[in-house]
Amino acid sequence: MKEVKKAQITAAEIAALWTQYMNETANLYIHRHMLEHIEDNEIKNIIVFAVNLGEKQINKIKSFFKREGHPIPVGFTDDDYTPQCPRMFSDDYCLNYINIMSLHGCHGYSAAVTTCTRQDIRSYFTDCLEQATALCNRTKDLLLKKGLYHRPPSITPAKQVEFVKDNDFLTGWLGEKRSLSCMEISDIYFNLKKSIFAKAFILAAQQVVGEGSAKRLLQQALKIKEKHIRTFSDVMMKEHLPSPPIWDAEITDSTTSPFSEKLWMFQVGFLLSTAQFYYSTGLGSSPRRDLIAKYTITITEVSKVSGDWIKIMIQNHWMEQPPLAENRKQLADK
Predict the structure, then answer these.
(1) pTM here?
(2) Calpha distance 174→228 (Å, rounded)
(3) Can you list the residues of the chain whose pLDDT is less than 70?
């Protein structure tokens, strides 16, 4: 039977594969450092699963690029990792790290399934989504078992269905504020959770990165994260709702870096970019004007730090260029 020729790979498919390759190669070395020091066997089994899954996906992406005639990205290599360094993260933080990253994976893979066209690539990302979901469930179950998973707040069931009667539903500056809606509570709580997680990771990076522009950027990012955590924790407190706990104490006192500055900075940039996305989601689902203002300010502040991050990555030759479209003007000039 004659083999059907596959359609040429699209820009959307290359974007999804290239982005995943960068993220997977970075996380692979973070997981390997965790695996060197993990003491809890249940958490260790999950990290082993995550490492094996990452290696399998990296090899699959390489085969896609090779078959399609695209260069395989550099991503992160053994040059970005120093084995046998003192541990940076506690066992509990390692478990939380994989749980949060699996959430990002679920969102990223589901988006890839919708933007990719070719059946073989859609099938690949569907498999990735199933594996990320399994990892998310495994980590969440273990966090619950260990008493480390902090559930979002519950609300009392309403006595009946109601409809919005006036513009008071939008108020937030003056007068009586309405209570937070369930959507607003969910967005604020999970944004806080991710910000608290990111703050602890940035704290670890700041401990081991040498003096210079990267260190100054990390200090700036840490201040922004602290400010945003205070902003939204204050919203929850005024509504008599709990906020997630801080993870800073789960970072050790080590000042010896297991990773290159390039890897630290890449991962911090990833956390900054995802923060912009999740804050934007919160903005889109929050009609209360005071929350709109808070989200607008946080997005602007993260964007400013992200802009500085890009400059530092370029100056240090740490930013790998994604595949670009043909420059028709340059071709014509030739």
Answers:
(1) 0.92
(2) 22
(3) 1-5, 166-176
